[in-house]
Amino acid sequence: MFGIGLAELGVIAVIAVLVVGPERLPDLARQAGRLLREVRRIATAARDDLRSELGPEYADLELTDLDPRTIVRKHIVEAMNEDDDSPAPSWRQRPKLMPVS
Fold first, then answer.
1. Taking every pair of C-alpha atoms in the chain, what is the biggest distance, in angstroms?
2. Per-residue confidence in pLDDT tens, the chain, 101 aa
3. Which of the ends of the chain has fewer CB neighbours closer than 10 A, N or C?
4. pLDDT at residue 89, as a whole number
5. CB of 61 within 8 A of CB of 54?
6. Global pTM?
7. What's CA 50's distance to the chain center, in Å?
8. Distance (Å, rounded) from C-alpha 16 to C-alpha 89?
9. 56 burial level (CB within 10 Å; 0-12, 13-18, 19+)
10. Do 20 and 28 meet the contact criterion of CB atoms below 8 Å apart?
11. CA 62 vs CA 1, 5, 10, 36, 85: distances in Å
């Protein structure tokens, strides 16, 4: 989860109890939960709107497909697979050895 381990979460919880106080901490956690639900709802609505605007050919579109790193990685893998299928260029072929008489 975001590269945060159990020890880091414990430290954050202790600091939150000290800064906010134990009586206000449950209300703060409830507000954080509501905010997270709202952000998820907005992201889902944006994805669904994008899918409906693009049409049925993009019905399986995921927002991670729009990440530039994913796009570049996909094209590099496709190019490498195409290179594996093609015959090796002549300069990459091993030279034929002449028999020694």
1. 96
2. 467 788 998 898 888 888 888 888 889 889 999 999 999 999 889 888 888 888 888 777 777 777 888 888 888 888 888 766 555 555 555 555 566 65
3. C
4. 55
5. yes
6. 0.50
7. 18
8. 63
9. exposed
10. yes
11. 20, 28, 33, 20, 30
CA dihedral 8, 13, 18, 21 (to 10 degrees): 170
Q: Give yes or no for a contact between 12 and 20, defined as CB atoms under 8 angstroms apart.
A: no
User: DSSP secondary structure string, 4-72?
Assistant: --HHHHHHHHHHHHHHH-TTTHHHHHHHHHHHHHHHHHHHHHHHHHHHHHH-GGGTT--GGGG-HHHHH
And the tokens for 30? 């409830």
- Structure-token pair, residue 55: 């049409």
